[in-house]
Amino acid sequence: MGPGEFFQKYFVDPIKYNQGYNAVNTTVYAIILGIAVLLLYRMLKRMGIKIDERFFVALMPYIILGPLMRAETDTGMLPRTYLTVSPGAYFVIAAFAIAALFVVWRHLGPVDKLYPIYRDFGWVLVGGLIFLLLINLNKAKFHWNYFGYFIPILFVAELSIWALGKKFKLIKNNKVLFYTHFYDATTTFVGIQFFGFWEQHVLAREFMGLFGTPAAMYIEKLVVLVPIVWLLDVYMKDEDPELINFVKMAIFILGFGPGTRNLLIAFMGA
Asked: Structure pTM?
């Protein structure tokens, strides 16, 4: 198999034919993500932008952009291209977020008012997608019964994290990450168990096959998250706190983004 055929088989065809992720492209995308996180962190440090709660709040609309764009793609409101489905969509949203931040920073510098202006620009972009949704409501088939499954199961899932946080300090100190990823796991479980969806990610598919139920997503989240937060909080405790915050922010996005995408796709009948 030549390089072209290899790339076609493992990277192009999975997007073109909606085959989901495989071990090869998952590994490559994970490496790219890791490098991107470190490069973005260095860029923010050079720009003098602090990675704190203000920055996180300002980033929220850009985090919402991806799930909303994907849901509108799957309902036919946006054309399905390599740039409107994952992973291409994430590159597009990241490009918007970085470009917007650079423009605002170039005009203002790393001052306090940078954060609300950057945030508001993101909400303008979200508003554009909401407008697109409103003028294309006929393409969506809203499944209100989705929440009849989702809300009680989410309550039980998050209650389990609360209980685990009472026993384990590591979970208590990172409860936002665990709450967020159990929210993601719940959207996956409900979508597969009750609405006929399927799991795209190779590791999650392996866990589901091993345990024979999509509820295995919750186990997968713990198996993956616990070692990562242990490394961050214990092994890397003497590293730059802002670097730790930025990595945790990336982990939050990896839970909140896909979870919200799953919720919107199932609710909008994609």
From this structure: 0.92
Q: Determine how many CB atoms are found less than 10 A away from the CB of residue 40.
A: 17
**Structural domain containing residue 114:** 50-140
Mean pLDDT to the nearest integer, 201-230: 90
Q: From 181, 23, 49, select the one nearest 111 (Cα to Cα).
A: 49
- What's the CA gap between 209 and 136, in Å, rounded? 38
Domain count within the chain? 3
Same-domain pairing of 124 and 66: yes
pLDDT digits (tens, 9 = 90+) for 9-20: 878 777 777 777
Q: Do 146 and 263 fall into the same domain?
A: yes
Does the CA dihedral 83-89-93-94 come out positive or negative? negative
Distance CA 145, CA 171 (A): 32
pLDDT (0 to 100) of residue 270: 63
The tokens for 15 are 């997007």
Closest among 270, 267, 264 to 142, alpha carbons compared: 267
Cα torsion angle, 195, 197, 203, 205, sign: positive
- Verify that 127 and 168 share a domain, yes or no: no
How far is the C-alpha of 221 from the C-alpha of 228, rounded, in Å?
11
